[in-house]
Amino acid sequence: MIPSIRGTRDILPAEVGRWQRVEGVARDLCARYGYAEVRTPVIEREELFAKGTGESTDIVQKEMYAFTDKGGDRITLRPEATPSMVRSFVEHALEQELPCAKLYSLGPMFRYERPQKGRYRQFHQLDIEVFGITDPAVDGEVIEMASALVTELGIEGAELVINSVGCAACRPRFTQALIDALGERVAELCGDCQRRSVTNPLRIFDCKVPADQPVIDQLPHSENFLCDACRDHFAEVRRHLDAYGLAYRVSHRLVRGLDYYTRTTFEILGTSLGAQNALLGGGRYDHLVKQLGGPDRSGIGFAAGLERLVLALPEGAGEMDVADAFVVALGDPSWFAARILARDLRRAGLTTLIDYEGRSSKSQMKRANRSRARHMLILGEDELATNQVTVKTMETGEQQTVARADLVAHLRAVRTD
RNA sequence: GUGGGUGUAGCUCAAUUGGUAGAGCGCCGGACUGUGGCUCCGGAUGUUGCGGGUUCAAUCCCCGUCACUCACCCCA
């Protein structure tokens, strides 16, 4: 046997219903909020993520499936969706043809990480992006939509966390304030934090090492360093969330790992997901489009991890629909008649199962039972002679004889009961 | 990349100080040749993750490796 690749997995029939449920709700939600779907390639130029996601991020530095193709170009499997969405938006000048550039995409992403609960090397994201609107009303709506996604999936106990990380004007001041406040205490922090204090001081807030917490607790809060414009923006975002009646927590420690975020950042955390508890995360990125060679347009969006949504889905969600009928053929003469009956029912839109191996009647009926089909349709020589079918309702055990011509109507009628 | 735990039938798990593998569920068939579920009877299936070592003998002990898993890290 040739096994599957580490960190990848087959989504098997027993679980695929849950996936279809998540994808179905996601697509429906996107449509209702006015988002248009975009499907971008799974492979992109490596530099798209180096410039977009950020050269300093772990994603780019050590998690990309990057390689040189036969033409000598540096290619990578996409580790996240946003840079691709921006590229597509810019490359096709989508703002010219879409009245309001709200885009979504659904598909696999790839990161070379150590697999863990809720974390795979090939994983799937729902990604939504809004381009060109700076008004905090969009931040509010995007966050409200993220919340609606979780709610409509029936996921309980999720927590919304928001923050503002400032903009190009005020973030440097805050970063400097962090470094100043840390001062000599840097030496007290863990190795990772010491590294972060140089590469990306904001990320110190992500640290979970208990010993570091007393120092981190005394660090300044980003909120107190926002410029007037960012402060106003953040206040407006919260007014919108309040108006929607959304419960949220403001956490000055919510600093997200991608370089491009400005102003609003947010996450929705799930319970019972283990350490990988972020169901979705996103924020505003007002300079990314320009940075990637496009016009100076703002952006905001989020990515939701489908594996994690599937994991968090309530028990019993996405159960597969049961078949309408299982055709049982008794004896050689009814072999073809049974097959034609199945074909006709399928053409009429009814989910129909049938056995292929000429099993005994008992065996076929056992299969009908196990298939959990609603009805067993018995077609033997008696029925053949009279142009009828014996219809047995599995749940009740009741059975009746129905004229072949009336069968579709009969099955449809009981289906909608 | 680092650390812990676990790898035995399709699934969940047994196997006594080391003596070459079993149960339940599931699957297939029969009892019941035109009536499923319940019951009873019968049946099939394993390179014990892989490779080495110790031993007369390894599922068991040792080493390596791979996979899964949890956590770190990272992030959806």
CATH class membership of the largest domain: Alpha Beta
Number of strands: 16
Strand content: 15-25%
CATH topology of the largest domain: BirA Bifunctional Protein, domain 2
Q: Give the terminus-to-terminus CA distance.
A: 47 Å
What is the CATH homology-level superfamily of the largest domain? Bira Bifunctional Protein, Domain 2
Largest sheet: 8 strands, mixed
Category from helices, strands and their pairing: alpha+beta
Structural overview:
With 417 residues, the protein is an alpha+beta fold. It folds into 2 domains: 13-170 and 226-312, Bira Bifunctional Protein, Domain 2 (BirA Bifunctional Protein, domain 2); 325-415, Rossmann fold, CATH 3.40.50.800. 38% of the residues lie in helices and 21% in strands. It contains 16 helices and 16 strands. It has helices spanning 13-32, 46-54, 58-62, 82-91, 94-97, 136-152, 171-182, 191-199, 213-217, 228-244, 288-291, 306-312, 335-347, 361-370, 381-386, 407-415, and strands at residues 36-37, 43-45, 65-68, 74-77, 102-110, 122-131, 159-164, 249-250, 262-269, 278-284, 299-305, 325-329, 352-354, 375-379, 388-393, 399-403. It has an 8-stranded mixed sheet with strand order 1-5-6-11-10-9-7-8, sandwiched between helices. Strands 13-12-14-15-16 form a 5-stranded mixed sheet, with helices on both faces. It is elongated. The chain binds one RNA strand of 76 nucleotides through helix 3, strand 6, strand 10, strand 11 and helix 12.
